[in-house]
Design goal:
The chain has a two-stranded antiparallel ribbon with strand order 1-2. The protein is α+β, with helices and mostly antiparallel strands. It has one domain (6-86). Strand 3 and strand 4 (21-24) form a beta hairpin. 19% of the residues lie in helices and 34% in strands.
C-alpha cells in the first residue's frame, strides 16, 4: 500500500480509473514522482504500455505562489505540463 496522495478523511486517494483511462494525483511534486515511478514499474512487470502521447501533467496553484514546475517523466518520456493559477480568497 502506498500512502502518497490526497487525504480524504482517513483515506488516501491517489488515482481514479475508468475503462482505459487513469488519473493520478498528489499534493506535491515529490509525491507525483513517486506515483509515476510506481506506474512505470507496474507497467514493466505487467507488460502494459502507457500512451505518453496522450498523457500530461496539470499543476494547480494559487495566483501568488511562486512556481518553478519540475519535469515529470513516465517511462523516461517527458510529460507536457499545463499550469493553472487559481484565485484563493
Amino acid at each position: 500500500m502506498v500512502n502518497v496522495g490526497c487525504y480524504v478523511g482517513c483515506h488516501v486517494l491517489n488515482h481514479l480509473l475508468f475503462a482505459d483511462d487513469a488519473v493520478i494525483f498528489a499534493p506535491s511534486a515529490k509525491g507525483l514522482h513517486q506515483l509515476l515511478d510506481i506506474c512505470a514499474d507496474f507497467a514493466i512487470s505487467h507488460n502494459i504500455v502507457f500512451d505518453t502521447v496522450k498523457s500530461q501533467c496539470l499543476i494547480v496553484t494559487s495566483k501568488w505562489a511562486p512556481v518553478n514546475p519540475p519535469a515529470f517523466y513516465l517511462n523516461s518520456t517527458l510529460l507536457p505540463l499545463i499550469l493553472i493559477n487559481i484565485l484563493v480568497i
